[in-house]
Design brief:
Length: 262
């Protein structure tokens, strides 16, 4: 072998080793690690029951999206409580989140007084901190109780849902924040498919179908893609999962401007 041939062979070996090293580094801590979307869910049992963050992550995975979740969701908490919680604020600052989801207590958005005195100040504070940290805030517009809120004069589910939707959209428009319209997807699902069981027996918390519908709404909201045909459906029958996927897609993507989707 000539000296020139030996030099060329050595060059090929070195180049191959370098490329192999770069590829491995990327998979361990480079581009591969950065490809995951990091999401922090802040809320209460509406988020934690059935582990909605994990349902969403599994759904996203079946659509080719890697997701890493963080959760701050003690039962019954309001966003006002989170805004005053050192643990929540430290979690918000502890990592580089891409998206932070804010879910208010179920009845607060339906009350004008509770909105103005507690919810809206908390959302303003949390959104400011989220954006200062470089993340995108999303409001989790929740569903109404199955029987409405008769103690406050809101008779029936639909009337209560209208007030909840109004409550979220008002602050979303003020701050220019996107909304995941889970509650409106529930409303459409209950109208078009009354055989679905979205509420648990307490008429408040979600069944697995309800949480799956919420995950589908988040999929359409965050990725701007229709979740129809995704293979992950948890323990749901294929037909029910298909209906919930389509409902979420139609509500979110038919009129994205309504939800401040940029």
């Amino acid at each position: 072998m000539t000296a020139q041939a030996r030099r060329f062979a050595a060059f090929v070996v070195i180049t191959s080793l370098t490329l192999a090293f770069q590829s491995t580094a990327a998979c361990i801590g480079g581009a591969g690690a950065r490809s995951s979307l990091r999401i922090l869910f802040i809320g209460n049992s509406y988020t934690s029951v059935n582990d909605l963050p994990n349902v969403f992550a599994q759904l996203a995975k079946s659509g080719g999206h890697a997701v890493e979740n963080g959760v701050a969701a003690p039962g019954g908490w309001t966003l006002f409580a989170h805004a005053r919680s050192a643990e929540t604020l430290n979690k918000l600052k502890s990592s580089k989140w891409d998206v932070v989801v804010l879910q208010e207590q179920s009845q607060v958005p339906a009350s004008e007084q509770a909105r103005t005195q507690a919810m809206y100040p908390a959302v303003r504070l949390l959104v400011r901190q989220i954006e200062e940290g470089g993340a995108t805030p999303i409001l989790f517009l929740t569903w109404a109780h199955r029987e409405g809120w008769p103690e406050s004069g809101l008779i029936g589910y639909e009337a209560t849902q209208a007030r909840i939707t109004e409550g979220y959209l008002r602050i979303a428009q003020e701050l220019g924040v996107s909304v995941a319209p889970v509650g409106d997807a529930w409303l459409m699902a209950t109208k078009e498919h009354p055989d679905l069981e979205l509420w648990q027996g307490d008429g408040s918390h979600p069944t697995e179908q309800g949480s799956y519908l919420a995950a589908c709404v988040f999929y359409a909201t965050i990725f701007r893609q229709r979740p129809e045909g995704l293979s992950y459906r948890g323990r749901l029958p294929k037909k029910a999962a298909s209906v919930l996927q389509s409902t979420a897609a139609n509500v979110v993507l038919k009129d994205p401007k309504r939800w401040n989707l940029r």
